[in-house]
């Protein structure tokens, strides 16, 4: 009896050694059906539409079916002229739903069972579903666009779409800097998103005057981990169109050079304007490498249904941004009227050249019937403002009066040198005059006019320092200015402190 039990144990052991277990829990004796030699394709990207899978091998029969993770697919067995199956090939349709997500699948064929111990299963093949193709990045702008040779390292902000975060399986987007025939991969700072990347431009890249091309590169989508067949991955990716960065000579950037780091710093230094109740804030910010004026409605003190929002103010009626830089916003007490200076030529029809003063009615608090409008203020029927640069406005509480500084450029050698050192604030050299514009807002039987409250050009000397604009009192009765050369710069003025003067405007103001 003991010898019989031993023989039985040996027999069972042999059965289990020969037997296998497929993915569906069925045990079988090796390959009892067809034999798969290859499949085509052997991989696709997730999200692929329905496709035809071709299975090559031997011993296929008319009733052979292809199974995908145990699910039977719609299978076609080619036949010869006699109607007999071509035993070396079958095809099947793989629905898009089966390859919607990255991963792997087991492909196997099943022939009709023919006798005990024959379940008709073939050897399995692994099918790889790669991640979707990576998108090609679109680079729309960089900030800053220029720097002076010898500058310290700076942070470059890149804006666009289809950027990949560092957590992406491909490793994320790369920022490439190409100049003088060499290319450098910049270090990306944390916090990259699909629309913005910040990268470090080291000082050695800014040591000498040059022109660099900046691009964003997305690597292709990688293959599935563990892929042992020739794996291409999901592919895609590629490089964006380049954007130029200019490293200017230490003496300064030539006219027309996109905004430099120093210009961006000037924007950051500008003081925002605040409404009396603190709800509205007007400020200068860089958009697409150009300084623009924005209005932020914080909804402070507003009804519960108010939603905070930011609006571009330096824009045309259809929302097109100003085509040149805008600066120095000033706001009425209720936040409805905002004055600013701009060199743009598209804010109003027939805009004169050079920096001008504009007053925008934002319609804040005025109701739905009000339509925002922009008006040119730095104009004078007597022609006194022709050829001047008008900057640094100051608005009275009601928005009716606007004081501003007008500079008549002087082109002597020394003053030209001073001019070249300025950017965001306009021309520094030349004769300065202070004007007040009565817009007649809220008044009846009133004609808008511009009044000069300083002396004629020539009565004071110019200064190469950064210009300072006037500050207008709430009721427009008084004007203060810093940086004047003498109290006699104004028709009527009172000394307040060293180089600070209070100008007395018309009492009717």
Beta-strand fraction estimate: 35-45%
Number of helices: 3
Cα-atom radius of gyration: 38 Å
**C-alpha end-to-end distance:** 126 Å
For the largest beta-sheet, the strand count, sense and barrel status come to: 9 strands, mixed
Uncertain ranges: 1-29, 411-429, 458-462
Structural write-up:
With 509 residues, the chain is mainly beta. Helix content is 7%, strand content 38%. It contains 3 helices and 36 strands. It has helices at residues 2-18, 261-269, 413-420, and strands at 19-21, 27-29, 35-40, 43-45, 51-58, 65-68, 71-72, 74-76, 89-94, 103-110, 125-130, 138-143, 146-148, 154-161, 174-179, 182-188, 196-201, 210-218, 238-239, 243-248, 273-274, 280-287, 290-297, 309-312, 326-331, 337-342, 356-361, 373-376, 389-395, 401-408, 431-438, 449-452, 471-472, 478-482, 493-497, 500-504. Strands 12, 13, 14, 15, 16, 17, 18, 19 and 20 form a 9-stranded mixed β-sheet that branches. Strand 15 (174-179) and strand 16 form a beta hairpin. The longest helix has 17 residues, at 2-18. The N and C termini lie far apart (126 Å).
SSE order and pairing:
Elements: H1 2-18, E1 19-21, E2 27-29, E3 35-40, E4 43-45, E5 51-58, E6 65-68, E7 71-72, E8 74-76, E9 89-94, E10 103-110, E11 125-130, E12 138-143, E13 146-148, E14 154-161, E15 174-179, E16 182-188, E17 196-201, E18 210-218, E19 238-239, E20 243-248, H2 261-269, E21 273-274, E22 280-287, E23 290-297, E24 309-312, E25 326-331, E26 337-342, E27 356-361, E28 373-376, E29 389-395, E30 401-408, H3 413-420, E31 431-438, E32 449-452, E33 471-472, E34 478-482, E35 493-497, E36 500-504
Parallel strand pairs: 4-11, 13-20
Antiparallel strand pairs: 1-2, 3-5, 5-9, 6-7, 6-10, 8-9, 10-11, 12-14, 14-17, 15-16, 15-18, 16-17, 18-19, 18-20, 21-22, 22-23, 23-24, 25-26, 26-27, 27-28, 29-30, 30-31, 31-32, 33-34, 34-36, 35-36
């Amino acid at each position: 009896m003991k010898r019989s039990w031993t023989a039985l144990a040996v027999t069972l052991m042999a059965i289990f050694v020969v037997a296998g277990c497929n993915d569906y829990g069925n045990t079988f004796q090796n390959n009892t059906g067809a034999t798969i030699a290859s499949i085509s394709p052997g991989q696709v990207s997730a999200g692929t539409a329905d496709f035809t899978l071709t299975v090559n091998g031997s011993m296929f029969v008319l009733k052979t079916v292809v199974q995908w993770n145990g699910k039977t697919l719609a299978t076609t067995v080619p036949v010869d002229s006699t109607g007999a199956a071509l035993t070396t090939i079958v095809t099947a349709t793989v629905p898009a739903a089966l390859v919607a997500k990255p991963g792997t699948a087991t492909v196997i064929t099943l022939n009709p069972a023919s006798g005990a111990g024959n379940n008709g299963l073939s050897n399995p093949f692994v099918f790889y579903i790669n991640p979707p193709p990576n998108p090609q990045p679109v680079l729309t702008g960089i900030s800053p666009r220029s720097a002076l040779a010898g500058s310290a390292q700076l942070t470059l902000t890149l804006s666009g779409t289809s950027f990949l975060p560092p957590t992406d399986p491909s490793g994320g987007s790369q920022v490439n800097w190409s100049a003088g025939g060499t290319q450098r991969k910049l270090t990306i700072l944390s916090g990259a998103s699909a629309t913005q990347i910040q990268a470090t431009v080291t000082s050695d890249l800014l040591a000498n005057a040059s022109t660099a091309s900046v691009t964003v590169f997305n690597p292709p989508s990688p293959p599935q981990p563990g892929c042992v067949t020739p794996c291409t991955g999901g592919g895609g990716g590629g490089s964006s169109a380049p954007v130029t960065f200019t490293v200017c000579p230490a003496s300064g950037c030539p006219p027309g050079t996109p905004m430099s780091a120093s210009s961006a710093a000037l924007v950051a230094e500008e003081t925002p304007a605040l409404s009396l109740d603190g709800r509205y804030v007007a400020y200068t910010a860089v958009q697409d490498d150009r300084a623009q004026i924005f209005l932020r409605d914080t909804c402070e003190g507003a009804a519960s249904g108010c939603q905070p929002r930011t609006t571009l103010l330096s824009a045309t009626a259809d929302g097109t941004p100003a085509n040149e830089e805008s600066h120095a916003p000033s706001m009425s007490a209720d936040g409805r009227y905002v004055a600013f200076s701009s060199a743009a030529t598209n804010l109003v029809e027939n805009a004169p050249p050079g920096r001008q003063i504009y007053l925008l009615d934002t319609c804040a608090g005025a109701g739905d019937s009000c339509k925002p409008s922009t008006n040119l203020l730095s104009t004078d029927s007597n022609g006194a403002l022709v050829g001047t640069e008008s900057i640094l406005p100051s608005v009275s509480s009601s928005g009716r009066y606007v004081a501003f500084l007008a500079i008549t450029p002087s082109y002597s050698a020394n003053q030209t040198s001073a001019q070249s050192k300025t950017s965001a604030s306009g021309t520094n050299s030349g004769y300065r005059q202070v004007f007040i514009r009565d817009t007649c807002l809220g008044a009846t039987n009133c004609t808008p006019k511009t009044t000069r409250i300083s002396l004629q050009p020539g009565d004071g000397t110019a200064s190469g320092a950064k210009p300072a604009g006037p500050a207008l009192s709430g009721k427009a009765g008084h004007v203060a200015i810093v940086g004047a050369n003498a109290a006699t710069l104004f028709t009527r003025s009172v000394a307040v402190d060293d180089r600070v003067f209070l100008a007395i405007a018309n009492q009717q103001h």
